Sequence to fold (73 residues):
Amino acid sequence: MEETSEKSGLACLLLLLLVGWLGAHRFYVGKIGTAILFIITAGGLGIWWLIDLIMLITGAFTDSQGRKVKLTS
Fold:
């Protein structure tokens, strides 16, 4: 069975939608290095932001430990 993150998928999604250009959702799940890159590149000029949105919605987004961040429990 696949391990699931204890981080809230809904909180992660809200952070992405509201302050995604600051990489807040990546800080939230412990991905500090990529969160800083997210800030520097403004979310990869929006492309990286869109990819993260799709990954969150489909359940493919992971935390810093490689565990899936799920929108539903």
Summary: Residues 16-58 form one domain.
